[in-house]
UniProtKB/TrEMBL annotation:
InterPro entries: FLQE3_permease (IPR056926). This is ABC transporter permease. Pfam families: FLQE3_permease (PF24686). It comes from the Bacteria. Keywords: Membrane, Transmembrane, Transmembrane helix. The chain crosses the membrane at residues 20-38, 50-69, 90-112, 118-138, 150-170, 208-231.
Amino acid sequence: MTRLLSALRLEVTLQARQKFLHAGIFSGLIWLAVLLPMPHDLRPVAEPYVLVGDIAIIGFLFIGGTVFFEKQERTIGAIISTPLRFWEYLAAKLIVLSAISLIVAVVVATVVHGLDYHLVPLVIGVVLGSLLMLMVGFITALPFSSVTDWFISSVIPLVVMLTPPIVYYSGLWPNPVLYMIPTQGPMLLFGTAFDQVALAPWQALYTVLYPVVCLAVLCWAAKAMFVRYVIAGSGVL
């Protein structure tokens, strides 16, 4: 626990130094600039799409940025020679960045809608969605030495994770096969938070359980990728 708390303090310091905290505030201001000019009856319709954008930017892009900052500063490889365990290192990133995403989402929703939304599904959706995008961003960033190469290749996982839920939610192609994408659950929760979706009991279970199962798989993949591209690459193995 002491190591995790130390890792959290360090992560907050790094996020502030690398200006990701500032970028989170800026992204919130952008979403407010998008939503506030809209008529009040259109805001609940648009808000779920804004929340998807929130988890995509802060979840996927921010953690990729932190990984490349650490690669440039040669700190990511140094982790293996410290008492800090991989899970503590990763948990610190996930906690800090998902907290930024959640704060931005709640502040934007409250400013735009007051208290006229359901907080619980919004919080669950943002946390699960952010964690999913954080894990995918972390995993996909590890093999690349250049942020440019990663950014070009990241289009594919971004499209896979974000487009199917949006397509299903918007009614363009409401095919059940799209439930295979784990971000479908958070998208449905966003709709529920603003009374755009009424979940059946099985859907309510799906929105939480399936993303959690997928997160467990992604955690395993993250450890394997870290061993291959960081630990093995450092010559320790």
